[in-house]
Amino acid sequence: MITLYEEQRQGAIAKTIEHSHASLEKCLEAIRRMDGFTCSLVTIQYEDNAIMVGGGSSEFIVTVETNTAIRNLRGTSEEEDDFVEITVGGQASEYPQMYIVNLELVESALLQLLTNASVELEWETIEK
Fold it and tell me: What is the model's pTM?
């Protein structure tokens, strides 16, 4: 079962909308609505995975947390020393450029994580 949590902000106040029994398409719709301001965080609970997508518009961060590891989706940039400011959960923070991904990579990651589709992606894994 997939449970989707959409955070919607009105200034400093955040409201979380829960969608039980969500589908892959419902998750993708929520991510496409992310604008990086009023909606800058979507969390998907699937099996033992917590999939967090932050940012919005054209720049996203994807992190997957399991019982044993944290995995960050890597984008196409190899610039490990460059940082980009992105708002996640209403908080503007700087993230390494190598973690910034576009919507197409987010969609590919969800296909891989939710349907076990064979998609070639690069993940950085941090063992707990």
Answer: 0.95
Phi-psi label, residue 32: left if phi above 0, alpha if psi -120 to 50, beta otherwise: alpha
Strands (E) across the chain are located at 2-10, 13-19, 41-46, 49-56, 59-65, 69-73, 83-88, 91-96, 123-127
Whether residue 55 contacts residue 36, with contact meaning beta carbons closer than 8 Å, is answered with yes
Residue pair 124/71 in contact (Cβ under 8 Å)? The answer is: yes
Cβ count near 93 (within 10 Å): 13
Q: How far apart are CA 73 and CA 105, in angstroms?
A: 9
CA distance 42 to 56: 10
Dump pLDDT digits (tens) for 81-106. 799 999 999 999 999 999 999 999 99
Greatest C-alpha distance within the chain: 40
Tell me the HSE value of 48 on the side-chain side, using a 13 A CA sphere.
Answer: 5
Q: Residue 119, Cβ neighbours under 10 Å: how many?
A: 14
